[in-house]
Design brief:
Layout: H1 9-27, E1 32-36, E2 41-44, H2 46-52, H3 57-60, H4 71-87, E3 94-99, E4 105-117, E5 120-129, H5 131-153, E6 157-162, E7 168-171, H6 173-179, H7 183-186, H8 191-194, H9 200-213, E8 215-224, E9 230-242, E10 245-254, H10 256-285, E11 289-294, E12 299-302, H11 304-310, H12 314-317, H13 322-325, E13 328-329, H14 342-349, E14 353-354, E15 362-364, E16 370-382, E17 385-395, H15 397-432, H16 441-472, E18 480-483, H17 484-494, H18 496-501, E19 505-510, E20 515-518, H19 520-537, E21 543-551, E22 554-561, H20 582-587, H21 595-605, E23 609-615, E24 619-627
Parallel strand pairs: 19-21
Antiparallel strand pairs: 1-2, 1-5, 3-4, 4-5, 6-7, 6-10, 8-9, 9-10, 11-12, 11-17, 13-15, 14-16, 15-16, 16-17, 18-20, 21-22, 22-24, 23-24
Helix pairs in contact: 15-16, 16-21, 17-19, 19-21
Length: 659
């Protein structure tokens, strides 16, 4: 009888012990272990059950193996199992995608090998979940990619050097552009070898600080480019750690132009401060009050004279409304409305507003004293936009006293001249009339010349008297209802001889209303001055147009002519006392330049306005407005004198000199 092939009890015991050792080992393993026959699971350790999301090992055993493999990988895994069965060789370590019991996919590293288990040829598959490690790896790759992008795209020059050698291992494009070295020229060398930082002492200090603190930030260094040019850079150096190894990260920003701009700006600032100091000294040395004001009418700057006149310090006035600190009243003591204030008019219209001496406002001081001031407000413009104003003013009490003294003297002197002039003129008229006997020949010519000169002297005296009465405010206004057109026709008749002599054409344009409550004497002075000027300065065969009538809330007098016109350079001075343009001096050397000054002074005191337009060689148009509401009665000790022209070639029978 042959030998039996059945295992002995000893062999069975050893086999059982071997199986137990195998299962104990793999039960304790930190990776999943599955034994399967290619179709179903024979054994699975606790970690394998956990990884696939199973409840127990017992439930796990007997399950089909392929459902735990992701559909994307099932065909590949099936082929690999068949290959192992045919060749008996172990499958290499691969990455596959498995599926948990709940259907959630996860990535694994897996290897399989053919083994004998419980007397059968089976496959042992070992796997571990690499989902988290792959996620970390992906994040690391992304981080490295971001770092690479940031490194390369950084607009500042950036270089990465290894430690402790300090050799450059990477530079960005900005480094190449800034220092002029290509990557392959810079990599593998130190900045010292490249000659970028030529100052040995500075290098030593930087190295010491980086070693002690691990970084150095915002240090300005003069670094050399490949071309040899030294430029100023703002440098940051940090010790960083990558994968456990330390590196130096160097960034540098070229601030050469910025430093040059800062230097230029500082020089400009110093110059501006010096200029401001000089200007402030200049403004404080001016004998007039100067105030700088913003577009809202608030004070920015005041000089010492302004502080003295107003009685407050610069700090007390800063930011305050100008009109609140310098309230103005007119000569009657009535407050000037805000929108009529010179400052507000200048800010609104963007034009310089100067208060004339005849309409000087008065500053009402807190202590009750009323001080006359002369004031000019000039807008400050930036790109045609008004951004503020400069107000210049001064106390004119002394000037007023001096002017009044001069005016009183002129008035007194003029009065003293009247009596002898009146007597001379009366006797000349008496002789020339033939009442004392016939006068003939050259003697008559001499007497005619004397008579004309006396008449001119009388007109001058009357003009001076009118000026003094206007400036002292002693003239009376006695309004009554008058027809202006009738008064205008009378004035034209007085000028008829001269108009006829020069063959001038006069056109009248009278529009309603023609009745106005006004002082006939004052209206005659206005009409006589404007019309006589047009007649006097219009060449032969010229044309004069007189327009009268209502214009809104005003009565408008408009006198146009085709006369000599006023040169542009003379126009600002037309209403100035005793001013006569060069072209009219040649045409009429005997004038004194007081007529338009008197008219303007009188019209403005009556609440009206006067202005003109003119082109030299083409003619002039004067405009005068008087409120339709009429003139207000004014008490005064004197009346203004209207000059009369000769009529029909005869000498005046009535004395032209009046007190």
């Amino acid at each position: 009888m042959g030998k039996s092939n059945s295992p002995t009890p000893s062999q069975i015991r050893e086999l059982q012990e071997s199986k137990e050792r195998y299962e104990k080992f793999f039960q304790a393993a930190a990776f999943g272990v599955v034994i399967h026959d290619g179709r179903k699971i024979i054994f699975g350790n606790q970690e394998a059950v956990r990884l696939v999301g199973g409840k127990s090992q017992k439930e796990f055993i007997g399950k089909p193996i392929l459902p735990f493999v992701h559909p994307e990988s099932r065909l590949t895994v099936a082929k690999r199992i068949l290959q192992m069965a045919l060749t008996g060789k172990t499958a290499p370590l691969l990455r596959e995608k498995f599926v948990r019991v709940n259907g959630e996919p996860f990535n694994v590293e897996v290897t399989s090998t053919p083994i004998h288990y419980q007397g059968k040829s089976v496959f042992q598959t070992i796997f571990r979940d690499i989902t988290e490690s792959e996620k970390i790896s992906e994040e690391l790759r992304e981080s490295e990619q971001k770092f690479a992008i940031l490194f390369e795209k950084n607009p500042f020059s950036t270089a990465l050097s290894e430690l402790p050698s300090a050799k450059i291992i990477a530079v960005n494009k900005a480094f190449e552009e800034s220092f002029g070295y290509r990557r392959k020229e810079a990599i593998g060398k130190t900045s010292l070898e490249l000659g970028i930082n030529p100052d040995a002492e500075t290098r030593t200090k930087i190295a010491t600080q980086v070693k002690e603190k691990g970084s150095i930030h915002d240090i300005e260094l003069n670094l050399r480019k490949k071309s040899g040019e030294l430029r100023t850079y703002l440098v940051n150096i940090d010790v960083i750690e990558i994968a456990g190894k330390k590196y130096l990260l160097n960034t540098a920003r070229d601030i050469t132009e910025k430093k040059q701009s800062e230097k230029a700006l500082m020089a400009a600032k110093i110059q501006a401060e010096e200029t401001a100091a000089q200007e402030e000294a200049l403004l404080n040395s001016i004998g007039e009050g100067v105030v700088s004001i913003d577009v809202g009418g608030r004070i920015i700057f005041t000089n010492k004279v302004a502080q003295k006149i107003i009685g407050k310090t610069a700090w007390e006035m800063a930011g305050q409304p100008f009109e609140r600190l310098l309230p103005l009243v007119d000569e009657k003591g009535e407050r000037i409305l805000k929108d009529k204030m010179p400052l507000q008019v200048a800010l609104k219209k963007g034009e310089t507003v100067a208060v004339s001496s005849l309409s000087t406002p008065y500053y009402f001081k807190p202590d009750g004293e009323v001080v006359p001031i002369a004031l000019t407000a000039t807008p400050v413009k930036l790109v045609k936009e008004t951004i503020g104003a400069i107000v210049v003013f001064r106390d004119v009490r002394l000037e007023k006293k001096v002017d009044r003294a001069k005016t009183e003297f002129v008035s007194l002197a003029s009065h003293q001249l009247l009596t002898p002039l009146s007597a001379i003129k009366w006797y000349l008229e008496l002789i020339l009339s033939g009442d004392t006997g016939e006068v003939k020949g050259r003697l008559k010519d001499y007497l005619e010349t004397a008579y004309k000169s006396t008449t001119r002297m009388g007109n001058l005296v009357n003009a001076l008297l009118n000026v003094s009465r206007l400036e002292m405010g002693t003239f009376a206004v006695n309004p009554e209802n008058i027809e202006i057109s009738v008064l205008a026709d009378t004035t034209l008749r007085d000028l008829a001889e001269k108009i006829s002599h020069k063959s001038l054409t006069v056109k009248k344009d009278y529009r309603p209303p023609q009745w106005l409550k006004a002082d006939p004497n004052l209206m005659q002075i206005i009409l006589q001055n404007l019309l006589s000027n047009s007649v006097k300065y219009t060449p032969e065969n010229g044309k004069i147009i007189l327009s009268l009538g209502g214009d809104g809330e005003d009565f408008l007098i408009q006198v146009s002519d085709t006369g000599l016109g006023i040169p542009d350079e003379d126009q600002p001075e037309v209403f100035t006392k005793l001013f006569r343009g060069k072209n009219i001096q040649e045409a009429d050397p005997e004038g004194v330049g007081l007529g338009l000054y008197i008219v303007k002074s009188m019209v403005e005191r009556l609440g009206g306005k006067i202005w003109f337009t003119s082109r030299e060689g083409k003619g002039t148009t004067f405009f005068v407005t008087i409120p339709l509401a009429g003139m207000k009665k004014r008490e005064g000790s004197r009346t203004l004198i209207a000059r009369k022209e000769k009529e029909n070639g005869k000498r005046e029978q009535k004395d032209n000199f009046s007190n």
